[in-house]
Amino acid sequence: MNELLSHGYIALFIIVAFGMIIGRIKIFGFSFDISAVIFVALLLGHFGMMVPDDFMKFGLLLFIFTIGMQAGPGFFEAFRKYGRSLILTSLIALISAAAIFIALSKIFQLKPDIAIGIFNGALTSTPGLAAAIESTGSAQAAVGYGIAYSFGVIGVILSINILPSIFKINIKDEEQNYEAGIRKDNPALKGVNLNVENPNINNKSIAETRISEMANVVLSKIMHQGKVRPASSKEKIYNGDILRVIGTQEAIEQAKILIGKEYPDEIPQSKEIVTEWVLVTNKDIVNKKYSEINLNKNYNTTVLKIKRSGIEISPNANSIFRFGDRLRISGGKNGVTAAKKILGNDTKKLSHTDFLPIALGILLGIVLGKINIPIGNFSVNLGMTGGTLAAGILLSRLGKTGPVIWSMSGSANQLLRELGLLLFMASVGTQAGAHFVEAISKNGIELIISSIAIAVVPVIVGAVIGRYIFKMNFLTLLGVITGAMTSTPGLAVVNSKSDCNAASIAYATVYPVALVFVIIASQVLPKLL
C-alpha cells in the first residue's frame, strides 16, 4: 500500500478526489468548493504524500494561460475604462502589505533575509522570492517563504470566502449588476420600420444614401409598393417606401432624421427573404474586415447584428470577423446559403479544441517571461507566470496569426483552467505541507503572526478602498485583490462562485503591476530594516 501511495500520480488523484468531496460539504451554507483541494494536500503532505513539482509547473502554466485567453478580449477595454481605479486599489493594498512588513520586522526584530522571505511567501510570489535571494545574497529568504506561503494561500482563500458575508454581498446580485453595466456600455439592438420621407434620398441606391455609415444602423429590408425585398446596396429607395432599420435606440433616432418617421405597422413576411443565425468558423476570414468580404454586395446578404461573448454589437464596414462570432444575417435564400459557406457555420469546429495554439502560446509566454526589463537601477522580468498571462491576453486579442486561431470555446477553457488549477494546488500543497509543522515549531509565533498579517490585512484594505472609495463591483474587486496578492488559488475560489469573467479580467489587469511591485519591493525593503 505504501509503495502504491508513493507514486505521485496516485497521490494526485487521491488529493483531488477527497478535496472535491470535502469542498462540496456545506456548513451553514458555506463551502470551500475547489479550494478544499489545497487543504487536503497540506494535510497529506505533512504525512509524506508528495505530488511532483512538474505537476505544479504544468498546472500553473495551463491555468494562467487559460485565464489570459478568457480575460484577453475584455482586458484592453477594461483597462481603458477602469484601469486607474483597479491599479490604484491594488497598489494601496500592496503598500499596506509593505508597511506591515516593515513594522512587524522591527517589532519582532526579524532578520532581513528571513523577513523578506515572509513577505514574498505571504504574497505567494515566487518571482519576488528570486529577487529577494538575489538582493540579500542569502538562501534564508526561502525559509521565510516556506513558512509564510501556506498562510498566504490559506489567508487569501479564507478572506475571499468570508468577505461577501462581512460586506453583506449577494454574489448573484453582483453578477447581474456587472452584466447590466456591460449592457449599458453595449446597448441592445432593436428594429423599427421607417417611412421614407426625405427628398434627398429619393430615387437613390442604398449605397448612395450612406445611411448605414451616417447613422450607424443596418438596413435589412425594403417594402416598395407592397412588395418586400432584401435591402442590398444596389437597391433604390423612393419616397413612400418602408425601410426596416436595426440599431441602438440612439442610432435609430439619428436614422429617423435621415429617413423619416416611424411606420406603425409591421412589414409583411416575404418568402424571398431568409433570416438566420450563422457561426463564424472559417479560419480564412477571421480578422478580416466586413468590407473585405462584403456580403451585401457579393451575396445580396446583410449582417443585421453580431453576438460576441453574449453581447450584441451593431455591425459596420470596419467590423472584424472573430472566430466563434454568431451573426444574424438576412437576404435571399441563395445568397444566405452562399454566405453560410463563406462564414463556415460549422458547430463541430467551434467545439473542437486545438492544442497547437495552447502549446505555442504557453511556450511564447515562457520566453516572454525571461525578457529582462530595465527599471532604473533594477532589471525585472515577468517570470514564467507573468509571461504566460501576458501571452494569453495578447494572443486572444490578436485572434489569428497565419493559420493559427488563438481562441478556444468557453467549455474547453473552463475544463483546462480547472484541470491546471487542481494540478497546481495538489502539488504546491503537498510541498508546503511537508515542512509546515516543522517550520512553525522551529521559528515561533512571531513569524506566524507576520505571515498572517501580511496575507490578510492587504485583502481587507483593498476591499474597503475598492468598495467604498471606487464603488467597485464586488466580483471585480475580488479579482483585483487576488491579482494584487498574486494568488492563483484565491482567483479559483472567486471563479467557483461566479460564471461571469469580471474577476478574471480584473485579475489580469492588476497582476502584471503587482508582480513588478513585489519584485522591486523585494530588493528595496530589506535595505530599510
Could you explain how this protein is built, in words?
62% of the residues lie in helices and 12% in strands. It is α+β, with helices and mostly antiparallel strands and 529 residues long. It has 21 helices and 14 strands. The two termini are 50 Å apart. The protein is elongated. It has helices spanning 2-5, 8-23, 36-46, 53-107, 112-122, 126-136, 140-166, 171-185, 206-209, 211-215, 249-258, 290-293, 295-299, 333-343, 347-351, 355-369, 383-398, 410-469, 474-484, 488-497, 502-524; strands at 190-195, 204-205, 218-224, 227-230, 236-237, 242-247, 273-279, 301-308, 311-313, 326-332, 373-375, 378-380, 400-401, 404-405. Helix 6 (126-136) packs parallel to helix 21 (502-524), helix 7 crosses helix 18 (410-469) and helix 19 runs antiparallel to helix 20 (488-497). The strands form five sheets. It has a four-stranded antiparallel beta sheet with strand order 1-6-3-4. A four-stranded antiparallel beta sheet has the order 7-10-8-9. The protein has a two-stranded antiparallel sheet with strand order 2-5. It folds into two domains: 2-51 and 72-181 and 423-528, no CATH class; 184-349, Alpha-Beta Plaits (2-Layer Sandwich).
